[in-house]
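Pipeline run #58 for the internal structure catalog. This entry was flagged by the ingest filter as a single-chain record with no existing model, so it goes straight to prediction. Upstream metadata was stripped on purpose; only the residue string is passed forward. Reviewer on rotation: M.T. Logging verbosity set to normal.
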Amino acid sequence: MKRTKVALVYDFDETLSTTYMQDYMLIPELGMKPNDFWKEANAWAQTNGVDQITGSMYYFKYLAEKKGIRLTKEMLSACGQFIVFYKGVDTWFERIIRYGKYLGLDVEHYIISSGYEEIIEGCDIRRSIREVYGCAFVFDEQGLPIWPARVVNYSTKVQYLSKINKGLGKFDDKAVNEYTPDDKRRIPYSRIIYFGDGMTDIPSMKMVKDHGGNAIAVYKPYSHHKEKAIKLLKDDRVNFALPADYRENKEIDWVVKTILNKLATEHDLEVLKRREDRKKQILP
């Protein structure tokens, strides 16, 4: 029997990882401390009228060239091995996939991030993710970055979320704005759970929540970040505000499994209703 598909969609920085993915290895390799790099990159972006995400991509390229460091795809991928994730993330994805199968659900994991696809590709968790949508570079024949291939911000996150909803390919940009009837969409928003922590996630969180899905604002445990997450809950942007601890029997685990239980029950109820509808058709 065909399983009901469910999508779990994640931001990356400070949602799965404990800080920005570039802070662990990439920025130190360039001879800087993370706070100093981001201060310089953001100042350059502001001075030149560039948005911060595109500006930081340029500034990584500029600084690497200045210091004679080869910012190759392989070098960026190696940075993924140094990322520190929140507790439980390393087992979370496969554990939830197994739980979904137990319920008769086909759980798929996606990442939509303003971080770099090249770094995420080097993470051990990548094997459990169906697709990654992130910022990416174009590389020349020497393997060095020459231009942004994709830039992901708060508005493009919504577009990629729509692709997941409609079942479109990663590079299928034309069809994303075309009308698709609800019953033709691969994964309805009601079967999407979105995880995020910051301002770039708010439009996606609100979109999922307003269309019957669930949005979870996560925050670093035992930190002031809790206040930001609670405000999102208070402002009706999310359904839950939870500490970023993905271990079994912790709050996120309980909440997600409860949502999956509900989705499985709703599917079973629909099957029973369709069976009863067929009975009506055989009556004279």
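catalog note: The radius of gyration is 21 Å.
catalog note: The chain is about 45% helix and 15% strand.
status: ready for reviewer M.T.
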